[in-house]
Amino acid sequence: MPKIDPETQKLHDEINGMIQKFKDDQKAKADCTWQEKCGDMGDIPKLRLASKKILKGHINKVNSVHFAGDSRHCVTGSLDGKLIIWDTWTANKVQVIPLRSAWVMTVAFSPSGNFVACGGMDNQCTVYDVNNRDASGVAKMTRELLGYEGFLSSCRFLDDGHLITGSGDMKICHWDLEKGVKTMDFNGHAGDIAGLSLSPDMKTYITGSVDKTAKLWDVREDSYKQMFFGHEMDVNSVCYHPSGFGFASCSEDQTARLYDIRSDQQIAQYEPPQKNTGFTSCALSTSGRYLMCSGIEGNIHAWDTVKVSHNAMLQGHENRITCIGLSPNGMCLASTSWDQQVRLWL
């Protein structure tokens, strides 16, 4: 670690002091805790998801997965330089899309299933039309979105014509895909943006960052509505609660947390039994009662969000899990890993 000069250290201490004051004020105004209010609720059954299918096709680390709106098809991106669109019902490949750059870090399926987007260390976002083929027979590239000064870490479609991205240059960009132009471009965090999650109504979104914070944004505006503290290391992933009133996050600090937007604070913290793994990705069940996080050690941990208790651990991957994604209907959990596998948990 480089030595911090006294002036910078003073600013660090001042910021940390302000954050602690916010937390103390929130605690003083809280009339009860999440556990106290939910203590008399019944336990939920143990999560009994099993790895029913292994999607084989990638020949390098698989970094990202995302489902289409039909809950049947998903897209995965790998360092082998391929996007693969899968039919999760049959475990067959639907399309294989070769990429110009192998360093893909994020993928997204449009809700309609008509488009996929990807990006990574090539510092751009590329959009493909899965219903139209070019002369070589692969999905037609419709847009190459340039202008990033850092890697692309996350992207999500609002609809077929609009896309939001977060990147390693700390910026959030909104794109009009029909015109191929940015409609908004602004600094979102004080560090790399690592994760992005859209609200159920598509009107707001949450971002997580290396600066240890998460922020709430309105899709129409370029300034954040709320900032959430708590994590002690990088916030790697965020996931909106199905109610739209909260969200979950997970971090390198070996915790996952649940935040309530209306009370503007963290209401629960979840830890693995052994406290031996950081987390790379998180997902909430359609009821919001199960929280699942993928661990660096290769397991998926699940908690009862209400009782704040560890519920299950899903084992199968042989290396770091990079991403998990739940189908919109809540019936299938997909996970990607450095072991080159995509697993479907049902």
Automatic annotation (TrEMBL):
Mapped WD repeat ranges: 55-96, 186-227, 228-269, 314-346
PROSITE patterns, per the entry: WD_REPEATS_2 (PS50082), WD_REPEATS_REGION (PS50294)
Keywords: Repeat, Transducer, WD repeat
Pfam families, A to Z: WD40_Gbeta
Superkingdom: Eukaryota
Gene Ontology biological process terms from the UniProt entry: signal transduction
Signal sequence extent: none
SUPFAM superfamilies: WD40 repeat-like
Family: Belongs to the WD repeat G protein beta family.
Protein name (database record): (Mediterranean fruit fly) hypothetical protein
Lineage, broadest ranks: Eukaryota, Metazoa, Ecdysozoa, Arthropoda, Hexapoda
Name of encoding gene: GBB2
